[in-house]
């Protein structure tokens, strides 16, 4: 490519054409006595400098919205040119085939890099989480589990204990028991947590401020057409990957699954820059980002199909059929890559593999639905509490000290989490234990049942038994853990570190579900003669599986917070391998959504979009107010008239003054100020670049030069001095227009489904005003009794 980023072959062709034209004009000039420059700028040969492309045309400024229709049109023109050229030679045909396959190459690269990063993150998180409690003497980079796997002295009964793994107190003092060892381990646990969180927030604050948070609200906004420069950049990718490991390892109530979507989209944006097909077209770029989001969920949960559905249901704004295929391919490659790395060490792709041996019964739908109600109420409580805290963070001095806030929350979390074994361990390990069924080989407190010595059943079919002291101890510890997780997650999500919400929400639901499951199990054992148990739970039978209740509760709470339905159920059964339990998962997910929607339609991501004032038009919102386009358009009666350009009477100086005095993204072009008959619409950036390029390349263009947007320039204008400037090529001759009596319900639908930046309001072809996306959002906020100025856009 040349210095301007154009293909070298195209540059050579353009130079050859220019030389040929020059010699032809010279030969013509010699016969008429005119100089070459006079012939070029003379009558009948006025140049339209946009016949040749120049750099940066049709790109967008930061914090602006793309024009979906324009991007689609540009891609169609590009594809048409490639198709035409491919008939000229075999080389052009090969180039056309390479262009067609570039999309699949990008998906392959995204899947491989996303899967690799996810595997590295998983391995690093396991090691650093265990580092807070101890170290492996045989290899310091081994986690606790890996250290004991490699030991020849590990027994089955004490498989979590091995000589090679030592806690910090035992390593430093030689004593692993007693109050002194407990206090030392407690102190070092808090110290490691504070160190990890401090490093995470410092790296984010200094190097990549956009690496904080979940990233999904911003990804949704970007996919809807908004430009946020740097949010998907290389530094953001690097810092988010590193700080995600640190944040999760610190023990805070957050997960890595949401930020992995952000990481995957950064990978997608990185590879888009390698192909002009995507780097120069923001609409095509967003198709790649939608597929990257699917790959992110695929590696986050080991759920490739769920990732595709998540991208379709939750984050994508424009999702054509070919994007569905490519999303599936990217998710597949990412899952294969993660499986090759095998970070969980179980030769499985799923994060929480379960294997239940008892079917569910119709009577159990009642507690499943109750868990759905709990999930909806928890989702409502969390969204309102978290949004209130984040709003307070934005409007008070708290927002000026993000490092201090992270350190304080981490300290409180570590101090309260260490005494309880269910909050001390990582959240993923906690969920895995809550999902597990109690077999004969389980050593967890949750499986401390009173065994019948005369039991002679096969291992996989253990009957319901009375709870032992370990189960009751675990129940009150889980109850404390439930309260702790509910409260601390509200204050953790939204801090200036990478923070996901999927795993903490699932943990809350899994704890509540396991408690309910144990309660139902004991009721069935002690009261098997009750009418609700008599038909399906006989004495000595294995009737109730508490782990299934934990799985259903996790789905209910995650659905209550995010309002996902179809993708949630698919993710849950891919996550656990529990294909047989789709109906309980569906019942809980639908119930939680109904209950949560009764208190508010917005999920946590939509609520954060509103809080941050992003210009996002949710396709799920309904606009039912009876207002008209004339009520929303600008200018209003008290405002100055609309800034317009005329097709043949505006000078370069007038255009530059208009650009300098206003901050509009574009200007309507009319026949004259008297008639105001609409001709088209020109973008501000295109206008600025066109004038700048014309001043550099065309002789005679000065401030008094007249700008023409017409097809033909008058002969008198071409002969006069200074030379006129023809900018017909940058004029959009088919801007979207509505009449002043169009209902706003229709206008809102047009903006949503066509992704418009603005539409012009006319009456009988006469321009009356303009409606932008910002105007639509402000009007919708005003109709919902909200502050219209809360839409900040930056």
From TrEMBL:
Keyword line: Antiport, ATP-binding, CBS domain, Chloride, Endosome, Ion transport, Membrane, Nucleotide-binding, Repeat, Transmembrane, Transmembrane helix, Transport
Molecular function via GO: antiporter activity; ATP binding; voltage-gated chloride channel activity
Keyword Protease included in the entry's annotation: no
SUPFAM superfamilies in alphabetical order: CBS-domain pair, Clc chloride channel
CBS domain segment(s): 633-697, 731-789
Transmembrane segments annotated in the record for this chain: 6-26, 101-121, 186-211, 232-252, 288-312, 324-341, 361-383, 403-422, 474-494, 501-520, 548-573
Topology class, membrane: Multi-pass membrane protein
Compartments in which it is found: Endosome membrane; Membrane
Pfam families: CBS, Voltage_CLC
Family per similarity comment: Belongs to the chloride channel (TC 2.A.49) family.
Descriptive protein name: Chloride channel protein
Taxonomic lineage: Eukaryota, Metazoa, Chordata, Craniata, Vertebrata
Gene name tied to this protein: CLCN4
């Amino acid at each position: 490519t040349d210095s301007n980023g154009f293909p070298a072959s195209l540059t050579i062709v353009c130079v050859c054409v220019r030389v040929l034209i020059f010699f032809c004009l010279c030969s013509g000039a010699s016969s008429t006595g005119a100089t070459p420059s006079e012939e070029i700028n003379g009558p009948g040969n006025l140049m339209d400098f946009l016949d040749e492309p120049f750099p940066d045309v049709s790109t967008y400024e930061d914090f602006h919205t793309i024009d979906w229709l324009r991007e689609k049109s540009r891609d169609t023109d590009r594809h048409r040119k490639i198709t035409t050229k491919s008939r000229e030679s075999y080389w052009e045909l090969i180039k056309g085939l390479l262009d067609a396959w570039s999309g699949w190459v990008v998906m392959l690269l995204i899947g491989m890099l996303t899967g690799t990063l996810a595997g590295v993150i998983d391995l690093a998180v396991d090691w650093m989480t265990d580092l807070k409690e101890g170290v492996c003497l045989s290899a310091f980079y081994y986690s606790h589990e890996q250290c004991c796997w490699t030991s020849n002295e590990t027994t089955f009964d004490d498989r979590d204990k091995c000589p090679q793994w030592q806690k910090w107190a035992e390593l430093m003092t030689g004593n692993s028991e007693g109050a002194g060892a407990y206090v030392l381990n407690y102190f070092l646990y808090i110290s490691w947590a504070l160190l990890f969180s401090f490093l995470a927030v410092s790296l984010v604050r200094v190097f990549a401020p956009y690496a904080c948070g979940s990233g999904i609200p911003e990804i949704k906004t970007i996919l809807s057409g908004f430009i946020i420069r740097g949010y998907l950049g290389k530094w953001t990718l690097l810092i988010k990957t590193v700080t995600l490991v640190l944040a999760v390892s610190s023990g805070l109530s957050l997960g890595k699954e949401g930020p992995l979507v952000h990481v995957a989209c950064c990978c997608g944006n990185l590879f888009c820059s390698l192909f002009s097909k995507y780097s120069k077209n923001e609409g095509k770029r967003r198709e790649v980002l939608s597929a990257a989001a699917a790959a992110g969920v695929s590696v986050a949960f080991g759920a490739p199909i769920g990732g595709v559905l998540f991208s379709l249901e939750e984050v994508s704004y424009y999702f054509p059929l070919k994007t569905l295929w490519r999303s599936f391919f990217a998710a597949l490659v990412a899952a294969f890559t993660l499986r090759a790395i095998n970070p969980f060490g179980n030769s499985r792709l799923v994060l929480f593999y379960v294997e239940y041996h008892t079917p569910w019964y119709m009577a159990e739908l009642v507690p499943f639905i109750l868990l759905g109600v709990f999930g909806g109420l928890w989702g409502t409580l969390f969204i309102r509490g978290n949004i209130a805290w984040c709003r307070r963070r934005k409007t008070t001095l708290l927002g000026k000290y993000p490092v201090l806030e992270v350190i304080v929350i981490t300290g409180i979390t570590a101090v309260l989490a260490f005494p309880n074994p269910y909050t001390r361990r990582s959240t993923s390990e906690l969920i895995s234990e809550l999902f597990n069924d109690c077999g004969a080989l389980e050593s967890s407190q949750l499986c401390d049942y009173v065994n019948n010595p005369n039991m002679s059943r096969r291992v996989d079919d253990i009957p319901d038994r009375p709870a032992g002291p370990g189960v009751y101890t675990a129940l009150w510890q889980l109850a404390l853990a439930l309260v702790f997780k509910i409260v601390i997650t509200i204050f953790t999500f939204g801090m200036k570190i990478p923070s996901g919400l999927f795993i903490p929400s699932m943990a809350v639901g899994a704890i509540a579900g396991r408690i309910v499951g144990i309660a139902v199990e004991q009721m069935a054992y002690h009261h098997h003669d009750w009418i609700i148990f008599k038909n399906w739970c006989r004495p000595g039978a294995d009737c109730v599986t508490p782990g299934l209740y934990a799985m259903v509760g996790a789905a209910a709470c995650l659905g209550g917070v995010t309002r996902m339905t179809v993708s949630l159920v698919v993710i849950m059964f891919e996550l656990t391998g529990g294909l047989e339990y789709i109906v309980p998962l569906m019942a809980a997910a639908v119930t939680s959504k109904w209950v949560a929607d009764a208190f508010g339609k917005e999920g946590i991501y939509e609520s954060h979009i509103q809080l941050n004032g992003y210009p996002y038009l949710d396709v799920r919102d309904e606009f039912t107010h009876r207002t008209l386009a004339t009520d929303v358009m600008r200018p209003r009666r008290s405002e100055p008239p609309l800034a317009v350009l005329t097709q043949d009477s505006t000078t370069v100086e007038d255009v530059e003054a208009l650009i300098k005095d206003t901050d509009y993204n574009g200007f309507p072009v009319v026949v004259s100020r008297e008639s105001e008959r609409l001709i088209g619409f020109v973008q501000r950036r295109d206008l600025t670049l066109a004038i700048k390029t014309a001043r550099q390349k065309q002789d005679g263009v000065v401030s008094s030069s007249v700008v023409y947007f017409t097809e033909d320039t008058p002969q008198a204008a071409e002969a006069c001095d200074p030379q006129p400037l023809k900018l017909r090529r940058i004029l959009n001759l088919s801007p979207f227009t509505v009449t002043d009596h169009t209902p706003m319900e229709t206008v809102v639908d047009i903006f949503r489904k066509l992704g418009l930046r603005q539409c012009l309001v006319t009456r009988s072809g006469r321009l009356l005003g303009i409606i932008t996306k910002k105007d639509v959002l402000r009007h919708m906020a005003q109709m919902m009794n909200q502050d219209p100025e809360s839409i900040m856009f930056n």
